[in-house]
Amino acid sequence: MDFDDSQSEAVFRAEAREWLAENARNFSTEGLEAPDDGGDPEALKLSQAWQACKADAGYACLLWPKEYGGRGATPMELLVYEEEERKHPLPGHVFRIGLGMAGPVMMKYASEEQKARYLPKMRRGDEVWCQLFSEPSAGSDVAGLRMRAVKDGDDWVINGQKVWTTGAHFCDYGIMVTRHDPTIPKHMGLTFFFVDMKSPGISINRINQISGESNFCEVFFSDVRIPDAQRLGQVGDGWSVALTTLMNERLAVGGAPPPDFDQIFDTVCATELESGPAIKDASLREKLADWYVQAEGFRLTKFRTMTALSRGQTPGPEASIGKLITAKKRQAIASFGMDLQEMGGVLMDGGAVEDSAYQDAYLTSPGARIAGGTDEILMNIIAERVLGLPPDIRVDKKLPFSQLPTGDS
Ligand SMILES: Cc1cc2nc3c(=O)[nH]c(=O)nc-3n(C[C@H](O)[C@H](O)[C@H](O)COP(=O)(O)OP(=O)(O)OC[C@H]3O[C@@H](n4cnc5c(N)ncnc54)[C@H](O)[C@@H]3O)c2cc1C
Fold first, then answer.
1. Is the pLDDT of residue 380 over 70?
2. Which of 249, 272, 296, 376 is labelled catalytic?
C-alpha cells in the first residue's frame, strides 16, 4: 500500500487546504463555551452556517452521490479533507448522524419525493437528524428493543421509550427502529421509520452528564402517529435497514480526537519532576512508546479500511479495532495528563492548565468506549469475524420475542 497522496489526491488536498484557509476562520469555535453540544442556540447556528458554507463549496457531503448534491468523492478524498479540516477549530459534530446514517438510508429506501424534500436540507444543515435506536433494555442487543408500532389505517401508532438519543432536544427528524410484531423472533419483528421530532405525543428529557453537558436524551412516545409513507424498507426489514446505519456509525465514530500522542508528548517534554525532566523518566517513556505504537497502528489501520472502501468493499472489522484502541488510549492519556499536572489536574475552570483538555477528555472518554458498540461488543466482533473464534451463544435468536424470559416473567 502507498501511504503518500496520489497525484489527484494531492491536488484535492491543496484545493481543500486553500479553501479552508480562506473560509474556516469565519466559523471558528475558539473561545466558545459549548461549540459542539448543540444545545446552545448560538453554537448550533454557527454549526449550521458552517455546514451551509461547505455545501455551497461542495465539501458538505463528500461521499454522497452527485445526484443528491454530494461530491461523489472517493473515501480517500474524504480522509484527506477530514485531515485538513481537523487543523481548524470548527463546529460540525451535530450533522454526523444525518449525513453519515440517515442520508444513506433515505437514499436507499425513501421515495423520490421524500429524497427531494429531505436530503437538500440535511445536506445544508437546515434540518438536523438524530438516531433513535437504544432503549433502556436494548443497547448492545438493539434487536431486543420493545418500542411498539401498531398499524392503524395509513398510519402507525408508536408507544415506548428511547434513550441516549444524542441531540434529540434540538433535532428536527430522527431515524428509528420499532417492533411491529412481538410474536416472531426478535430480528424479524422490526420495522424502520423516520419521524418528525415535533410530532404530537413525543416528549424529551435531557440527561445531565458528569462532564456538565446534557446532549443525550430520553425520548418518550405516547400514541405518536407516523404515516406509513415514512417507513423505510419493508415491514419486518428493520434489522437489515438498521445494520446499514450501524456499519456507518462504527466508521463515523472511528476517529481519534485529541488529546492523543502528540499532546501528551508535548506535555511530558514540558514537565519537570522532582527527579528531573519527565521525559528522562524510563517508566514515562515506556508509556509514551506504547501510545505512539497505538496511534501509528490506528493511523495505518484506518488507511487499510479506506483502501477497502476505495475498492468498493464494505468496511470490515478494522473499523471496530480502531475505535477499541483509540477510545481506551484517549481515556488513559487524559488520566495520565491530569496526574502530570499534580494538584492542578483537579481544576477545570479558572486556573486549569492547557484549557482543561485532559480534564474534559477524562470526563467524556468513557462515553466513547460505549457509543457505537462497547469495548466488549467490539472484542466479540473481532473474536468472531477477524480471529474466527466460536460466536457468542445466542439462545434467544430463534424464539418468538414475546416468549423470551424477562425480569417480569
Ligand atoms: C456518547 C454516547 C452517545 C450515544 N448516542 C446514541 C444515539 O444517538 N442514539 C442511540 O440510539 N443510542 C445512542 N447511544 C447508546 C449506545 O448505543 C448504547 O449505550 C450502547 O449500545 C450500549 O448499550 P447499553 O448502554 O444499553 O449497555 P448494555 O448493552 O446493557 O451493556 C452493559 C454492559 O454489558 C456488556 N455487554 C453487553 N452485551 C454483551 C455481550 N454480548 N458480551 C459481552 N459483554 C456484553 C457491555 O459491553 C457493557 O459493559 C449513545 C451512547 C453513548 C455513550
1. yes
2. 249
